[in-house]
Amino acid sequence: MSFVVKGTKTYNQAADAVVKSAEAAITQLGGKPSKKNKPAEGRLEANFNKKIGGKPLNNRVQLEVKVTSQAAEQCAVSFEAYPVDPIGNKLAFGVQGQPGRVVLDAFLSALEG
Fold first, then answer.
1. Cα 33 to the center of its chain, rounded Å
2. DSSP codes, 30-77
3. Where is 7: in which H helix or E strand?
4. Sequence-distant (≥ 6) Cβ neighbours of residue 63 within 8 angstroms
């Protein structure tokens, strides 16, 4: 069973605006941005350390977001969320619930809200 949650959504906004909104959503939810972040390239990574928006999670979760411009006022947002161990390795077992889905749902809600 894979605990990785992936998806893509299209937004009718400029890619730069969506990247800024995504960064704000990650900060608002309590995610710790990664050193691998490259907002100018539309790549964001964050780690949620067993909580999101003040609510507890059973596992740590890594969120990766990529924003790709499709037109002047349209972009595609690809995202992937998966549980990780304290070192940052993907977990293949020992995961309680669906933490990737919880993080992704909260992130998309904050991004669109």
1. 10
2. T-EE-TT-BGGGTEEEEEE-SEETTEE-SSEEEEEEEEEEEETTEEEE
3. strand 5-11
4. 26, 31, 44, 45, 46, 47, 48, 79, 80, 81, 103, 104, 107
Extract the tokens encoding 24.
């704000």
The type of residue at 29 is L
**How would you classify residue 53: left for phi > 0, otherwise alpha for psi between -120 and 50, otherwise beta?**
left
Integer Cα distance of 12 and 33 in angstroms: 25
CATH of range 5-112; options 3.30.530.50, 2.40.370.10, 3.40.50.1970, 3.30.390.10: 3.30.530.50
59 pLDDT tier (thresholds 50, 70, 90):
very high
Are the beta carbons of 6 and 17 closer than 8 angstroms?
no
Helix (H) or strand (E) holding 20: helix 15-28
Is the pTM higher than 0.85? The answer reads: yes
